[in-house]
């Protein structure tokens, strides 16, 4: 019996050290773009109306991720007043699928995206991935669901669009478009498609395209970035690696230093959002990519793609302390604002890796327009309150929402699925 127990524990330890289980992050981090620089992997995701926007995470093993920075310090667009709730509302708009890459020749990071609710494409640049990030140009067209390629000759391209997929060549500095052509028109079989990512491998150009939901295709050209392109299926409702959630789709692929390739897709996990799942891919003799399925399904568990390398946890504690002591304290990078630059949030400013309060808060009747937010999917959250005259609200927001309010006497009130904004008594 003891021998069996020891062997069982040993087998469990080996399993824990050599495999990972999907999802790799239990958080709403959709529309993934991925790049590798040396042995570091960077993950960019949509953030909608949250500010700062376009969150960046880092990993060294594709499984353990840490929050690092944001490509968009604040939502400073032509429709900023609407994002500020001064002349309209842009909730659930803002930063959708966007492009993110690094250009070695100029040692520059690029982020760009068409801002939903604005209609223009904004390009941000930075000398390091941590920042500072600067809005460098406005492109007066919507490069919808864009993915970028920096080709072997250092020319830069953006794949974009829906149903008809286009490729745009970027200017030498990467800040404008100098050529833009439709390279693939969807077929009757495919219908609506979007979510382009752009790659080059072994002399062929690839466009990674989603047919929502839940299928994925790939386009391939051996002629050039402007095609012509052929297409093949990658995913067609292939499994539910997270029980109770949807099928993997969209996302991005990336290579490891030894030439292996991996795919991070997202899937819908109601009510928390779209969470990332990881799987290896392989290439057939004709140069077409395939996900490594188990029984024709995206598996829940796969071998670790790389040796594990711990990073700063994506869960943790934010003390906040007293407001007067927060002048020089940076709030961790997983916090954002649900809205931006209202009276409440102007007391804070963006830093390279997070947010810092620069003066005491202004309390008024509409502070719920702009709560400090953490897009987290958790089974347990602990909230300690020390100052009874401070008001704290913990909310769960999706199609329905609920909140717990701590006020004055530390009494607790729980309301669910009620009208917005809440009535606090």
Estimated structural class: mainly beta
Distance between the first and last residues' Cα: 60 Å
The percent range for helix content is under 10%
Strand content: 35-45%
Largest sheet: 5 strands, antiparallel
Q: Tell me how many strands there are.
A: 31
The residue ranges in which pLDDT falls below 50 over 5 or more consecutive positions are 1-15, 322-330, 340-365, 387-391, 398-402, 406-425
Count of helix runs: 2
Rounded mean pLDDT is 80
Shape: globular
User: Radius of gyration in whole Å, from Cα?
Assistant: 23 Å
Structure write-up:
- The chain is mainly beta and 425 residues long.
- The protein is built from 2 helices and 31 strands.
- Strands 6, 7, 8, 9 and 10 form a 5-stranded antiparallel beta sheet that branches.
- Strand 7 and strand 8 form a beta hairpin.
- The protein is globular and about 50 Å long.
- The relative contact order is 0.13.
């Amino acid at each position: 019996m003891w021998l069996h127990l020891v062997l069982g524990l040993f087998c469990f330890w080996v399993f824990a050290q050599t495999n990972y289980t999907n999802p790799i992050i239990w958080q709403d981090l959709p529309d993934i773009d991925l790049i590798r620089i040396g042995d570091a992997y960077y993950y960019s995701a949509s953030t909608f109306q949250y500010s700062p926007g376009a969150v960046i995470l880092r990993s060294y093993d594709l499984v353990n991720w840490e929050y690092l920075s944001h490509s968009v310090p604040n939502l400073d667009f032509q429709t900023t007043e609407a994002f500020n709730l001064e002349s309209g509302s842009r909730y659930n708009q803002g930063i959708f699928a966007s492009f993110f890459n690094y250009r070695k020749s100029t040692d520059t990071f690029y982020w760009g995206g068409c801002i939903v609710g604005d209609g223009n494409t904004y390009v941000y640049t930075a000398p390091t991935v941590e920042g500072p990030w600067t809005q460098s140009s406005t492109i007066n067209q919507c490069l919808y669901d864009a993915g970028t390629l920096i080709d072997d000759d250092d020319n830069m391209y953006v794949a974009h669009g829906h149903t008809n997929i286009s490729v745009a060549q970027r200017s030498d500095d990467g800040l404008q478009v100098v050529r833009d052509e439709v390279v693939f028109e969807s077929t009757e079989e495919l219908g609506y498609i979007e979510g382009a990512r752009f790659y080059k491998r072994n002399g062929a150009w690839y466009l990674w395209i989603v047919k929502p939901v839940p299928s994925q295709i790939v386009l391939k050209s051996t002629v050039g970035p402007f095609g012509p392109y052929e297409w093949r299926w990658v995913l067609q409702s292939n499994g539910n690696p997270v029980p109770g959630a949807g099928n993997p789709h969209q996302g991005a692929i990336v290579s490891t230093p030894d030439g292996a390739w991996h795919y991070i897709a997202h899937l819908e996990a109601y009510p928390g959002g779209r969470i990332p799942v990881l799987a290896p891919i392989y290439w057939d003799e004709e140069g077409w990519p395939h996900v490594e399925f188990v029984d024709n399904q995206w598996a829940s568990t796969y071998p670790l793609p790389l040796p594990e390398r711990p990073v700063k946890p994506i869960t943790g504690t934010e003390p906040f302390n007293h407001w007067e002591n927060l002048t020089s304290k940076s709030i961790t990078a997983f916090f954002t604002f649900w809205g931006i630059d209202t009276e409440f949030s102007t007391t804070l400013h963006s830093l390279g890796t997070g947010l810092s309060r620069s003066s005491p808060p202004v309390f008024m009747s509409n502070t719920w327009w702009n709560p400090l937010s953490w897009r987290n999917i958790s089974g347990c959250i602990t909230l300690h309150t020390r100052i009874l005259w401070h008001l704290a609200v913990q909310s769960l927001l999706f199609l329905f929402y609920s909140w717990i309010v701590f006020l004055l006497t530390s009494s607790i009130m729980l309301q669910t699925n009620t009208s917005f904004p809440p009535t606090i008594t």
